[in-house]
Amino acid sequence: MQGKRVVVLTGAGISAESGIRTFRDNDGLWENQRVEDVATPRAWEVNPGRVWRFYQARRRQLSEVEPNPAHEALAELSDGLEHMVLITQNVDDLHERGGSQDVIHMHGRLETLRCEASGRYERRMKDSDLVDDFLECDCCADPQRVRPDIVWFGEMPMHMNEIYAVVDACEVFMVVGSSGHVYPAADLVHIAQANGAHTILVNAEPPLNVDYFDEVHLGMAGELLPGLVQGWLAPSG
Ligand code: APR
To answer: Is 107 annotated in the active site?
Structure first.
């Protein structure tokens, strides 16, 4: 892996061992809610209070969870390689707290809130920012309501030009903890493989797009990744 252009894409599975529930492992519900009721623009239009309270609970949860050995292993990998880009579908901050820098959050972030009028986002994690009442922006003369800075179903993921550019150019593409259900993220491995990259999977079970991976490691990311990373960073790895 040394000297190669490496791209890593992570999904909810990498944060599972930190205690953040994944989306599709159990009964189709996410933290007891149907995804359509809390993670779509329509839900925000029809019942903004429910959506807001749901995401405020997710934002408060960040202080109760810690990065796990899989997040730390990816930070170590990035430190040990010349060219690695980390893309995540996760909205938590566990990669950053596990030591990774410049993480590309394609589905948004929990720590920031976005002004509905200007589209500007800002880090808002003080206690007064974590309440169940709606909050207003600091950017408009007439303060406007803010929304979660999250990409909901039906919205365009963030940073896609940059993501396609690095995936097109990569020589190794690895996915950790993603079920391959949600596009365009699920398609990135296909693009990488079509361009000749070596593709690696670390996941608890075979995802929908398992056929696009050259190397498959099935198991818990927190248990598998530290050893894999050590091997890749070893002089002959
Ligand atoms: N280690 C590795 N893989 C795991 C672990 C673990 N400890 N625990 C669960 N997994 C695997 C599951 O087997 C599953 O294949 O992680 C995957 C998680 O899949 P999803 O819950 O579908 O999460 P993800 O692929 O990230 O979802 C994509 O969907 O709801 C949207 O925007 C949301 O970013 C999210 C997107």
So the answer is: yes
